[in-house]
Specification:
Strand content: 5-15%
Radius of gyration: 59 Å
Number of strands: 4
Order of helices and strands: EEHEE
Strand order of the largest sheet: 1-2
Distance between the termini: 145 Å
Shape: rod-shaped
Structural class: alpha+beta
Length: 161
């Protein structure tokens, strides 16, 4: 088929079977359907008239596939830029809290003291006011009532001393 081929085509001779050995299928070579041929293999006729399968083109070495570099998505860039910012913010906050901790503890003690003072005031102030209002002696009440006639209207005044 290709007389200008630069490759020498050789065939292996079939060994002669031993006369006492049984070799089924040696009388006829196995047949292959054209769909079963691998890519690049064709049936060729040799100069001696024998037909055989052979590669008609030299094998091509396929280069590894070139990977196309994909651009980095915007969300990934944003996340990568925010991660150190958030980490540094958390670190700064923790340092600030560690410096402020003694002051926060003192402030919480002061607030609890203020709450205790308010609670004591709620109980103590009415007691103190009640004690301050007590008179030194029995209460003196003076009443002046005047009425005119048998069925007249009565008027009066009450004085506490």
């Amino acid at each position: 088929m290709h007389p200008e081929s630069s490759y020498e085509i050789t065939t292996a001779t079939q060994p002669r079977p031993h006369p006492l050995a049984y070799h089924p299928g040696w009388s006829q070579p196995p047949r292959m359907l054209p769909e079963e041929l691998p890519p690049g293999v064709q049936v060729v006729t040799l100069p001696g008239g024998m037909r055989t399968l052979a590669y008609t083109q030299p094998p091509t070495h396929t280069a590894p596939p070139v990977t196309v570099v994909q651009p980095i998505p915007a969300w990934a860039k944003t996340t990568a830029l925010l991660a150190p910012t958030v980490g540094c913010g958390i670190a700064a906050a923790s340092v600030g809290i560690s410096y402020a901790a003694p002051g926060l503890i003192a402030m919480s003690h002061a607030l609890w003291s203020a709450v205790a003072l308010i609670a004591a005031g709620v109980v103590a102030i009415p007691v103190i006011l009640r004690a301050a209002r007590r008179p030194t002696g029995p209460a003196q009440i003076t009443q002046n009532i005047t009425a005119t006639g048998l069925f007249g209207r009565a008027n009066g005044t009450i004085n506490h001393r």
